[in-house]
Amino acid sequence: MADHESIYETILKKREEHPALPYVFQDTETAGREDTLYILLSEGISYSQKEDMARNCCDAIREAITTNEVEKIAKLLLEQPIRTFFIELRERLRVLIEIGSFTQLELHDLGMKLARNGREADMVKLGIILIGFYPHDITLKIFKVLGYHSEFTIYVTESIYHAHFRHNEILFDLVQHTTGYGRLAALFQLKPITEEQQKWVIKSGVKSNLLSNIYVNIALQKTDIRHYLFETEIDEENYSDFMYIMAYQEQLEQKSLSAQALHFMEKLVEHRTFADTFIDEAGLVTIWLKVIDSWKYDYQYLDAQVNESEPINSYWNHRFDRYEKLIRSVEVFLNKPKWQHTVMKEMINPNETDYLIVNTLQFLEMKPDFHVFSTMLARNPLGLNLLDFFLVHYPEKYFQEASDYLFALLSEQLFELPLLFVENSEPQSSDLVKVNMWLEALLKNMLEQDFFDIEWCIKILGYYQPKLRRMALLVLRKYADEWEDDDTVLTALETLREEEENRKNSRIVYKLLHMEIGPEKEVKYLPVSNVIENETTSDAVILDTKIVGTRFRDLTIAEEVVIKGKVLQLVREPSNEFDPKAIAVTLEDGYMLGYIPRTDNRILATLIDNDEVLFARFESEDLDEEEAKISVLLRKKRGPIFPDKPFGGNVVPFPTK
């Protein structure tokens, strides 16, 4: 915005050039995002801090009213954005008006000056709050000019909601003429009482290329919208609107579907002949997924509550029959070539989210060629749903092409960032976090499956993130035979050896370069007779202790899998020449990490020798700590209160596709 113009004047001028609503001259993906999400979703700083800032701001407002100078306000808002305390400010101003510290007219005059002449966004936001205490026609006009811009909508909606008698009518106008985070703010405050409002919210208000799932779930929090959905007769005209709600909803995602939600889904499936578009298809897939989840939850609940000999209540028999009818109806209906063509058309020209497209592909068991995803990747180059589809669900088909795609996408500058050495030091950039997730998925596939991309390993050896460097080192260790004499790899390892300060990574680098420091560390496996995979509710902690002797073991094999909470095995080693009561701590495959200390093992050895089942839980953050702490647990011979078997014999198991 021009330096000599106020924000208000700039909006007026741009509105003359582009009179369409919502405003086309705002960036809908960023305008108002920070303020709206902070105010609606975040608790932010402590209440006492907010109160202190509100008091300081009120003092600055009092001084500005007296001196007609606003520099103190500007300085205060520069130090602390108004979004962090504006609700406390509004309530404090209300009390100060009540006791006569300010008049509404005094606040209005200052507010008009800030709202109309302010060149900084926070000054305009404060102006909106102040003029809200003295509503009249001019105030409303200014509210609309500013409120149609998403940067200011949240402040206008809050001021209208708490000050204007006709606030719901004005809020409905804002919802209709805003977009992005502005519409989100207005929709949050709106109470859609009338049928006109309810119908508009369902048909138009929740539709967005950016925030559909948030819009839908904000709408579903409103009792009038839920009542409209559940009570309105479904016809060809409203079917896709209702399916849009179904596809993007999360509010209906209870562990077990409510009676209303289940009935709503049944109505949608009964009228499936109206389905024709991708959103209809995605809605039916969503219903299938929700019903399967609810069926599973109800089944497990019943299995834990009902004895083998007890008959199942007729209510549950009827409910499971409804579940089965729903999922079979959806499967049969979508098992037609038409729906494969529908999702392929959506992929080529995507309007809905990656999440819906990927869910539908998985339901239909489709694995299109990688190039078919090009438009989706252009729209969302680091999409996490696409990452899961390519590298978690179907790496056997997509690994190499996803690897090549990422190699071409990422800038070389990413691999020139200064190395970090402390674990879990993630960047603030969300894009960089996504890059890390893609790279980690690539490396994980190389570690767990038979994929190897030497170019990626070399690049990641110079990457800033220590965990990813370590994963690349572990991949190189796994495929050592394939690069042993490759000078490029050896040069990259030598370079990293000189720079690496992360102890875990340094150990692996030295081992790969055959430069072991000190004596050779032992690699030892012991036979594990009864592997304990998971804890149960009846397991009892009988001792807190540590693992000793880890410095003699090669931990590079185990350090990636041994994390806090991991179950470890305890294996007696009576033939140990140094201690006949020795108890080794191992992984499931018997790989030895160390021993229970001699001072703690006497009673434990007696228990194991008497056929008691003992195991350990890892309690430290990682194996790199000097004292790796563990808890020793006893498994009661009677087993847990509920059997380990997944399901009883009373209920027909829920189906899987």
How would you portray this structure in words?
- The chain is mainly alpha-helical.
- Helices cover 55% and strands 5% of the residues.
- The chain folds into 4 domains: 7-190, no CATH class; 266-366, no CATH class; 410-512; 540-635, Alpha-Beta Plaits, CATH 3.30.70.
- The chain has helices at 7-17, 33-41, 47-67, 71-79, 86-98, 104-117, 121-131, 137-147, 153-163, 167-177, 180-189, 195-205, 212-220, 223-231, 239-248, 259-270, 278-305, 314-334, 337-348, 354-363, 374-379, 384-393, 395-409, 430-448, 454-460, 466-478, 480-483, 487-499, 503-512, 601-609; strands at residues 540-547, 567-572, 583-586, 592-595, 613-618, 628-635.
- The chain has a 6-stranded antiparallel beta sheet with strand order 1-6-5-2-3-4.
- Helix 11 (180-189) runs parallel beside helix 13 (212-220) and helix 24 (430-448) packs parallel to helix 26 (466-478).
- The longest helix is centred in the middle third of the chain and has 28 residues, at 278-305.
- Mean pLDDT is 90; it is low at 639-652.
Short description:
With 657 residues, the chain is mainly α. The protein is built from 30 helices and six strands. It folds into four domains: 7-190, no CATH class; 266-366, no CATH class; 410-512; 540-635, Alpha-Beta Plaits, CATH 3.30.70.2330.
